[in-house]
Amino acid sequence: MTQHDFSDELPDLLTDSELNELQDFLDSDTVPESAMILDTLDGFLTALVIGPVSVPIKLWMPLVWDLPDGRETPAFESVEQAKRMTKLVLKMKESITTLLSSSPDVYCPLYMVVDHESDEMYNNLVKLWATGFVVGIYCNKNNWQPLLDKKEVFEELLMPIFLLSPFSTDAPSLPTKTSNVIRRLIPEYVKEIRNFWLPQRQRELARKKGVVIADEAEQTGRNEPCPCGSGKKFKKCCGR
User: What pLDDT is recorded for position 176?
Assistant: First the structure.
């Protein structure tokens, strides 16, 4: 399916054969008609990966199988198939994480590395990717709000993606040249959005490991809960 198999360079990434397997499943009658297709899933997982906080699997996985509300589930043939498809979705998410953290210059959305039969198909795949990305934002909207509220940053990094999605119904149609520029710049938008949230992500990871960030410690009262998450008062934990 892809023109270049990055798994040769980064062995933890999803292989072409695994991508094809997942795509065949998402295109099959086994899943609800409302299930994401591969490019929508790619955009969705990308938003989850680069967003402000980790989103529990139980909150986002149902949307993969049923985009409107996550109520329907695939008619899996067996427990093994359910585990296999879930594993492939998680591996796809981890692949995006690995690319953006280890080889950001290599990262690009799937629609950039597949063969397209026509410009119309290419445009549809871009729209599907953007749809998934915006859904990924809205399933965790409260945590994305600081970026959504920063007008200049929103207009520079997120508005272009919104304009490529079907959620921009009130906006005028983009000129073809503008659309083409935005599509080519998607990898840069993704990396800049990731950089925007990276400090917050690093704080989250540190807290999970029980490490207290210096400025958090300075802002924490002696009798307040320790920011490491231990449940103890700060003075009896990391504030000793």
Answer: 77
